[in-house]
Amino acid sequence: MNWSEHLPALTLAIPLLGAFGAPVAGIFGRLVRNVWFLLFSALTAISTLLLWQYVSAQGIAIYVLGGESWSLALPSGMSLPIRIILQVDAFSALMALIGGIAMFAGAIFSLRFMERFSGLDKFVTLFFLLTVGMLGMELTGDLFNFFVFLEIASIASIGLVAFWRDKPEAVEAGFKYMLVSIVGAMMVLIAVGILYGRYDVINFAAVAQNLHMGLAEKVALSFVVIALAMKSGAVPMHMWTPDAYGEAPAGVTCLLVAVSQASLYGLFRVCFSLYGATMGSGVVAWTIIILGMLSMFVGVTMAVIQKDIKRLMAYHSVSQIGYMFLGLGVGLLAIADPRALGEYGMTAMQGGIYHLFNYSMYKGLLFLTAGALYYRTGTRNLNEMGGLARSMPRTTIMFVIAAAAIAGLPPFNGFVSKLLIYESTFAVHPILPVVAMVTSVLTLASFVKVFQTAFLGPARERFRQVREVPPTMVAGMAVLAVVVLGLTLFPTWSLANMINPAAEALVDKAGYIKAVMGGGF
């Protein structure tokens, strides 16, 4: 028996064990709990890396829970899959890897960042449950379990956003996130119910095989697009983002960035693998493109006027989500036309997926640097900071790396993904790359302002005793900085081995169906 065949299940089981074991580890003291937190975070990240390697080498991985065999989706005599199936293609595996890296960095950073607070056993449990929800959304092969994992992630997120429950702002942010999560989950559940009522099955591949576009299918698709765009933080449904990202502990915000990408993953899994060319018209694709344009422009214009560094970065998150919507929306627009897909559609999707990877790394790093500043200065107000580069040189270097990447400065990784999006979207309409480039210029201006305000200039008298953050917090930031630099130094390798396979898997609806349904497609 090859143990690597069990990686899809192990990738969910490890953080789940970490969650339920955290209260027990906490009984034996802070040191044991921290070792448990670090150990299971590392194991989770390693399992996502091994799973990505396995899928890259072996192709789509299928894992059946509770069946006669973990690799047999359709036992003898059955025409439809009824078991819980995990289905991992190159796109799913890449998303899981991104989430694993982000959660590992957030966990290392949180070891010292959170030590001054109580209730850390609950914190570790919720952190791992949030990881389970995120990874489950990316690995599941059926619609109902996507809803279940979405709920797990939402409940854990609410608890972590409102973790500092003595702060009214944190409680308010948690309440807003709860309302958004409830509305989003109900819409996804209604969509799942509609599709189940039509096809008597909830497996992605089985539904995709039989799906014919009708009124019920259009209603279900509308509900999914609205719900998951809202959970991703796209304008005009972004109202929860500045509050949740701003009030959550920094390590949690780093993970929340990856969790929002799991919602984005669900949106595009449904659009490409479930509906694909059967959508017929370009209404959904243009809706996604317009949401992307609005997100880019509104997000960046709101960011430049912020004084709170975490809210500023949260609005930039909204703006960056727009690039991914734009890239993948253009790819969806070309999905039914092989010529258009070859000329610009695949490039747009590669740009969107590459930007998704880049964004998760540099945005997570930016939130961790903001947390490091707050840890030492006790404020998030940029007007109260100044001259911190002298006393916090490592944090300054991390911030510069992340700021250069998000602004799209050559040769950083953000430049590569944005260039792919500029080139490909120009073929659809020249206004699309123009808006994207203007957004990049405003992003650069915003982060120059942050750098000049917080890190340069004379040191404030109240911060003369400030020193660099503890080594574990630097290590958490370094994990993401190394990935950003790796993507910067090896863009060709990254595109060939990580991004292109993910984009090809996303458009290969027939291959996704065949992995579960066999030759029935």
Report the helical percentage.
over 70%
Shape: globular
* Discrete helix count: 20
Which residue ranges are poorly predicted, with pLDDT under 50 across at least 5 consecutive positions? none
Largest sheet: 2 strands, antiparallel
- Percent of residues in beta strands: under 5%
Mean pLDDT: 93
Structural class: mainly alpha
Question: What does this 3D model show about the protein?
Answer:
This protein has 20 helices and two strands. Strands 1-2 form a two-stranded antiparallel ribbon. It has helices spanning 7-27, 30-58, 90-113, 120-139, 143-161, 168-199, 204-210, 215-232, 241-247, 250-275, 283-303, 309-333, 338-377, 388-391, 393-407, 413-426, 431-455, 471-489, 491-507, 509-517, and strands spanning 61-65, 84-88. The protein is globular, with a radius of gyration of 22 Å. It is 75% helix and 2% strand. With 521 residues, it is mainly α.
